[in-house]
Amino acid sequence: MLAQTHIKQQLDALRHDRTLGFVRLRVACEVNSFLGWLNAQPLYPRIYWHARGEERPEYVALGRIHELTDPAHIARVCANTQASQVDSPRYFGGLAFDPDLPPQGNREWQGFVPCRFDGLALDPDQPPQGENPWQGFGPCRFVLPRIELVRRGECVSLCLNLWFDEHNREAELAAGHQALAALVPEAPLPPLTPQQWRRRDNPDRSEWQQLVTTVTAPDFQTHTPKVVLSRESRLEGADVNPWSLLARWAERAEQCFRFGFQFEPDHGFIACSPERLYRREGRHLFSEALAGTIRRSGDEALDARLAAELLSDSKNRLENRLVHTDILHRLAPLAHDITLTEPRILKLRLLQHLKCDIEAELHPEVCDWQLLAALHPTPAVGGAPRESALAFIRAREPYDRGWYAGACGMLSRETSECSVAIRSARIDPGAVTLFAGAGIVAGSEPAAEWAELDNKIANVLSLLG
Question: Is 319 annotated as a binding residue?
Fold first, then answer.
């Protein structure tokens, strides 16, 4: 590949250079399908990130220079990205929905099981079994990649990242050559063929009804007016390539963030999420409250009536108000000139959501780790108040969300952006697990909320036969 030859020449020119710190080498190249190129490469981790909006850059990240796997260490990203180099490093990764929760296979159950939470008893004989399905993801994993492929408009660049200190120059140069030598040309993605699978929902429908009934009880509502309950739908027997599924899914998700992570060959996590956690451009911050859902019909006139119904529905307006009120409260110590728009309709292929846009100017020295700590998880995926809603989810939800509803994205000095990892799927050998959640508030009905969960997975489910 000509691009690799040119970047190797730049790499060799650094042998006698004394530059320290982060260095990015780049050359123009030609790649048509970023996901096809990504799937062909032998390097891991393999990461794909394309923020909402076709004008946004598209990224593939391969390999790693180093990574952060402790939420407490995200502050190091800020330290590394505030250096004075022309190029700043970009970290790609995510936080679990509940980074403080131990993995399911390793939880300390003493004092937690058996337990009662508003009249529902956990079964002391049924603690979570088996190995952690999120093994390799962890509570936090942000990667500084060795290789990046970047598309900005019509321009595509191949980048090699290096980080020099006083003692590692020869080792970094050798690692750079090794990574470049491993790259191969793009190839067509494997076809996505119809699958034969068996679906298992967790919680099942009866458990779901019990959970919703508990959350909507008047005594519970007095202290926790919103809990976002969720469900995993495991399709056993489905065997798919994660990047083939993401490519097809993305065709139906124009107004969404598209991203995926494959830290090792046998496990992947992909999403086409409509929800932004935040976008930071220098000191300027963009966030949003996305909560309140109704279906689309495919008929323009009926969709307009459904949108009007959503805008006027007191239950959905309450759900959205709880979200944006919490976000504004959490931003208050970090920013000024905070503005909030009136709710509007975000139209997706099969669903419509209530969405309020939030903008603010950050105080000096406010970093991404502070934004993540303040905003994640939002009431759109957890509930309100945060602490009591999370306590209920930890005690009563019968599976480990892992990175579902987590915060996934890219952090850099100039611009950082994270999406909330809803409308997502975990791909394991012989199984695909789909996730969906619904905000439960006063007036929520179990059957209607169950139907909403089905609507939220219908898009990707239709791709799997």
Answer: yes
Q: 404 to each of 340, 370, 454, how far by Cα in Å?
A: 27, 21, 16
pLDDT at 110: 29
For the chain, give the percent of residues with pLDDT over 90. 81
Catalytic residue among 172, 275, 288, 417: 275
State yes or no: is 226 an active-site residue. yes
pLDDT of residue 1: 66
Q: Cα torsion for 39, 45, 50, 52, to the nearest 10°?
A: 130
Rounded mean pLDDT, 210-219 = 98
DSSP 34-74: HHHHHHH---SSEEEEE-SSTTS-EEEEES-SEEE--GGGT
Distance separating alpha carbons of residues 436 and 442, to the nearest angstrom: 20
pTM of the predicted protein model: 0.91
CA 381, 385, 390 angle in degrees (round to 5)? 55
- Cα gap 11→15, rounded to integer Å: 7
Cα 12 from Cα 173, distance rounded (Å): 8
Among 186, 226, 232, 355, the one annotated catalytic = 226
In the block, tokens 């690692």 appear at 175
Q: What tens digit of pLDDT does each residue of 170-210 get?
A: 999 999 999 999 999 999 999 999 889 999 999 999 999 99
Q: Which domains does the chain have, with CATH numbers?
A: 2-463 (3.60.120.10)
Residue written as tokens 């990205």? 81
Residue 452 is assigned to a ligand binding site: yes
